Every structure is written in C-alpha cells, then in structure tokens.
Amino acid sequence: MKAVGLYKSLPIDHPEALLDVDVPKPIPGERDLLVAIKAIAVNPVDYKVRSRSVTEATLRILGWDATGIVDAVGPGVTLFKPGDSVYYAGDITRPGCNAEYHVVDERITGRKPKSLDFPQAAALPLTTITAYEALFDRLGIDVEGRHRGRTLLVVGGAGGVGSIGIQLAKLAGITVIATASRPESETWVKQLGADATIDHRRPFHSQLDSLGYRYVDYIAIFNNTDQHWNQVCDVVAPQGRITSIVENEGALAQDVLKQKSALFAWEFMFTRSMYKTDDMIEQHRLLDRVAEWMDAGKMRTTVKEVLSPINASNLRKAHAVLERGQTIGKIVLEGF
C-alpha cells in the first residue's frame, strides 16, 4: 500500500524529509479497526516527531488525524463493523495514519459526523480530544454548564486546538477571551464564538483590565508555555486553574500559584492510549459526543485548506506551513 514516511530527520525543504513509500498492509489486532484512509490532517506533533526521528534504519510513518471507512475488524471489536465511517487521532506509540490503510484501537475511535465530508472530519480528532480533555478533564469545567458565566482565557485561540476549545467552552456557557495577534486571527476566533480578544504580544494584565477583568477563572495555554507563563500566573484567579499542551523548555516558577492556591495540569491527548489506561474508551465517547454536536449544528469544522492527493510533496508543504507558526485552523490532505 502507499504511505508517506521518513528514515531520518531533515529540514522540511529537503526532498527526502518525507518520502513516498510502499509498505505491507497492516493486520488488525484484538481491539483494532483496519481503516481505509480517506483524509488526514497535520498537527505540530507531526513536525516535532519528524525532527526527533534520527535513525536511518527504520521507516517512521507519521500522522495523528484521520478519517475513513472500516475495512476489517479484530476479533475482540464490539463498537464498529466493516463499512462504518470513523474519525480518530490514533496512538503515538504506533505507526501513524499517513498511509492507505491504518490500524487503530476502537476505544479511541469515534463515528464520523454524518453532516461532514471526509476532509471536514479529518480536521477534528486530535484537536477535539485535546481541547475536550484540557477543558473538561484538566480544568474541571462542567460540560453540562454548571460553571456557566465563568471566564476562560484561551492562549492561541486561532490554532487548531484553540479553534475547537473556544467552541466547546461556549457550549458549556463559559465567557471566552481568546488571544489573537492578527486581524484575520481575531476575525476567526470571533466567528467561532469568542466573546473578546487580546493580543498575546502585549501585556495580558492591562488588556484584561480594559475588558473589565482583573483575573480569569481558567486559562488554557495552547501556544508557547514558556513565553506566557509569568503572565498567565499573574492573571489567573485565586483558586483558579491553568492547563497547557505545550512542553516547557525552561523552569516554570510556581510561587505565585502557591499564593493563589491555583492548580496547574498538563494535557497530553496520547496519555490514555500510551499507557492503556482503564478509561481509554472515554476518547471514543467524547468523539461520538462531538460528532452529535456537529450534526446538530452546535459546532463547526476548523478546516481551512485541503490539499490533494496525500503524498510526500503535499505533506512537506503542510509541514512547512505549520513550522512557521501562524496557522489558522487546520490543513487537510485528501485521497491517495
């Protein structure tokens, strides 16, 4: 089958940074689905893993956003059957989805929203799982609206995770302030439901003050933890909560959080699949729930650009755009 992979880390403008290859069709395991891939999306994790893949001995296939049709199932599968349309982010410890066929555990797979085509659905899984877990599991926001009226600052509102996080927070009745540094980013986050915006290149405190907020109850860092750490610690409310999805490079001072009795929690959407946690199936459930919200018109896809076909050339283009760090929404590739 066709696939796109790499043998060693190279700059993305190098013609061998990503390669078109032929590999054997995978065989599903006990709880696995074999999925015929229809569309994929790219995320920062793709280029981060690519940059760390230094060996030349083993082919590495990237890709952790996919949608397609179930071709076959493992003997222990109970949630899906051949012919079902699915969407998922997969497991970072297994080969990625940049291939014609891909195997994925049914417990981290959802039913594709019926109202969306394959490219529209491919934009969603990784960012949906990340944003959902960040808001409802890590920050403790009540998905049913029990915390209606509280405030959330989304740092990096126009990116893939921020674009979903804004929508999920609004469904829970939260007042959302999103960072956006360009006019097109500001327009995008307001279209998604953000109540207000601030510029993450300028001091948070004064901008929030001008909006009538000295503190915010919740903060989700979806862009550069080190750069924004001191500012989010300053503006988080006493007994508030902060989460981040971006690994830090330097030390993160904790003293201000102690004074405020504020909580900080990391979000990594691959934790459940990586450690085979007892609650792995929660990712299946949340993807199905978001699919229902999409089909009910309560949420919208975040795809901004679709490239075709799925090949090394187009994936190199997509990686290059992501590495520049100014992406709005998601880049999707469709069809082999």
Q: Would you write up a description of this structure?
A:
The chain is of the alpha/beta class and 336 residues long. The chain folds into 2 domains: 183 residues, Quinone Oxidoreductase, Chain A, domain 1 (Alpha-Beta Complex); 139 residues, Rossmann fold. It is 32% helix and 25% strand. Strands 3, 5, 6, 7, 8, 15 and 16 form a 7-stranded mixed beta sheet that branches. The protein has a 6-stranded parallel beta sheet with strand order 11-10-9-12-13-14, with helices on both faces. Strand 12, helix 7 and strand 13 form a beta-alpha-beta unit. It is globular.
From the structure above, extract its key features.
336 residues; alpha/beta; Quinone Oxidoreductase, Chain A, domain 1; Rossmann fold; 2 domains; 16 strands
Radius of gyration: 20 Å
CATH architecture of the largest domain: Alpha-Beta Complex
Low-confidence runs (pLDDT<50, min 5 residues)? none
Gap between N and C termini, in Å? Answer: 10 Å
Number of strands: 16
Structural class: alpha/beta
Please give the domain count: 2
Average of pLDDT: 96
CATH topology of the largest domain: Quinone Oxidoreductase, Chain A, domain 1
The CATH homologous superfamily of the largest domain = Medium-chain alcohol dehydrogenases, catalytic domain
Classified by CATH, the class of the largest domain is Alpha Beta
Shape field: globular
Largest sheet: 7 strands, mixed
- Give the number of helices: 11
- Which range does the strand content fall in? 15-25%
Order of SSEs: EEEHEEEEEHHEHEHEHEHEHEHHEHE
The helix content is 25-40%
